[in-house]
Design goal:
By secondary structure, the chain is of the alpha/beta class. The chain has 11 helices and 20 strands. Strands 9-7-5-2-10-1-11-15-19-20 form a 10-stranded mixed β-sheet, with helices on both faces. Strands 14, 16, 17 and 18 form a 4-stranded mixed β-sheet that branches. Strand 16 and strand 17 form a beta hairpin. Bound molecules: guanosine-5'-diphosphate (GDP), 6-O-phosphoryl inosine monophosphate and magnesium ion (MG).
């Protein structure tokens, strides 16, 4: 950690790499944890003291004593989900009102955004994105279309007029879609929505960009927490099968109001294999017993939607691309223990399309490629009880060394289980 710089944790694959766990583990070294993009499409799991918790909008530093948690301007907030999350955290004895700040510039997800998300997905049929149906795409579309509602608007006298004008526009749009089933009761949700925005007014709505810069100037250690993953980035992910925000380290600057010169360490997190929820290219996806084994042992089911995650081998072509795009300074490897029982572990080192061999990540995300694999002997030893790098089996050390050599970045932390404690820092 460098004084007057902010560190970042972000996912290098398609999300669910274990960002929540890592942020919770790193938080004791920081005073402030800030989310800079995404919304309740995120599901970040924390496991400690024999209990587990899933966070969607609140930064993963919330359970650590004395940490301030900021929801930055780049985030989109569903007030109903945020309030519910806060109530659940408070039920665990955490006084959230003392440690949560919300940017006035963060955008609000309206009930009609959720309806538009459902309408759009339904209309796309087989080519649907597989969105989390949380209204993320429509809310960001209104933001860039200069038609959004922001947290700061809640304090304006004409808030209900602003809301109604947007709602009417959304309703006109909804009529353009073929008939579809709304997965929630609109009237009920809208009622809860208005109750929730009132309840959220007890939290400070702040100019978070000013706050962040002031505390940086004062030397306060800050950790920025990414959501989703680099391959879901709106510009560089497997478009159009992506989310609607910039998930890369560059998003920290616009999502918090921080200059590029102030970004310090970039912790890039990846699983020792790969998963993806929703549609879109996934070159190393497995449809065999190994894929099923990864899903079963890794409990690969969505933390937000409960959907089974697609599973596959580690993809070095994609990983090198996202390490490059993020300027990763330190790697963190998660869920290594899930590979304990495999005789052979594979890693994609290139893609083949017809006779053409590719070593760089293609424009279409590798829609029609076949991976070229390198094989590693499995370590066949349980890793979850180990706490020192020196105690790792040789075969596992070789896997680590290979990834470091290929990416040119050191693996600083190895996670060997879901609990806070199951972490090896080198
Ligand atoms: P996030 O969205 O990046 O925060 O990740 P998720 O919480 O959606 O998914 C990661 C899942 O893996 C959660 O269920 C975690 O509890 C679990 N997990 C995290 N690290 C490890 C690990 O090293 N080993 C195992 N077996 N599970 C882990
Ligand atoms: P965390 O932060 C995994 C995926 C969805 C879908 C696509 C677009 O827990 O890693 P959206 O609802 O954003 O319009 O969906 O992005 N997706 C995620 N996949 N983890 C997430 O968050 C995700 N957030 C969105 O499944 O394919
Ligand atoms: Mg998740």
């Amino acid at each position: 950690m460098e004084k007057n710089k902010l560190d970042v944790v972000l996912g290098l694959q398609w999300g669910d790499e274990g960002k929540g766990k890592v942020v919770d583990v790193l938080t004791p070294s920081y005073k402030v944890v800030a989310r800079f993009q995404g919304g309740p499409n995120a599901g970040h799991s924390l496991v400690f003291d024999g209990d587990s918790f899933v966070l969607h909008t609140v930064p993963s530093g919330i359970f650590r004593e004395g940490t301030v948690n900021v929801i930055g301007n780049g985030v989109v907030i569903d007030p109903v989900i945020l309030l519910d999350e806060i109530s659940q955290i408070e039920a665990r004895g955490v006084d959230v009102s003392k440690k949560l700040l919300i940017s006035k510039r963060a955008h609000l997800i309206m009930p009609t955004h959720r309806a538009l998300d459902a309408a759009s997905e339904s209309a796309m049929g087989k080519s649907k994105i597989g969105s989390t149906l949380k209204g993320i795409g429509p809310a960001y579309a209104d933001k860039t279309g200069r038609n959004g509602l922001r947290v700061g608007d809640l304090l304006q006298d004409n808030f209900s007029d602003l809301y109604e004008a947007r709602k009417q526009r959304h309703q006109q749009l909804l009529q353009q879609y073929p008939p579809f089933e709304l997965p929630f009761s609109f009237e009920e949700y809208e009622k809860q929505w208005f109750q929730a925005v009132e309840a959220l007014k007890r939290f400070p709505f702040i100019d978070s960009e000013v706050y962040m810069n002031q505390i940086l100037d004062a030397g306060t250690p800050i950790l920025a927490e990414g959501a989703q993953g680099s391959l879901l980035d709106i510009d560089f992910g497997t478009y159009p099968y992506v989310t609607s925000s910039n998930t890369l380290s560059a998003g920290v600057c616009t999502g918090l109001g921080i200059a590029p010169s102030r970004v310090g360490k970039v912790y890039g997190i990846f699983k020792a294999y790969c998963t993806r929820v929703g549609s879109g290219p996934f070159p190393t996806e497995l449809f065999d017993e190994d894929g099923e084994k990864l899903r079963a042992i890794g409990h690969e089911y969505g933390a937000t939607t409960g959907r089974p995650r697609r599973t596959g081998w580690l993809d070095m072509v994609a990983l090198k691309y996202t390490v490059m795009m993020n300027g990763v300074t330190d790697l963190i490897m998660m869920k290594s223990d899930v590979l304990d029982g495999f005789d052979t572990i594979k890693v994609a080192v290139a893609y083949k399309e017809g006779d053409r061999v590719m070593e760089s990540f293609p424009y279409d995300g590798g829609k029609n490629v076949t991976p070229v694999y390198k094989e590693f002997p499995g370590w066949k030893t349980p890793l979850s009880g180990l706490r020192r790098y020196e105690d790792f089996p040789e075969a596992f050390k070789k896997y680590i060394a290979y990834i470091e050599a290929e990416t040119g970045v050191r693996i600083k932390i190895v996670s060997v289980g879901p609990d806070r404690e199951a972490t090896v820092v080198r």
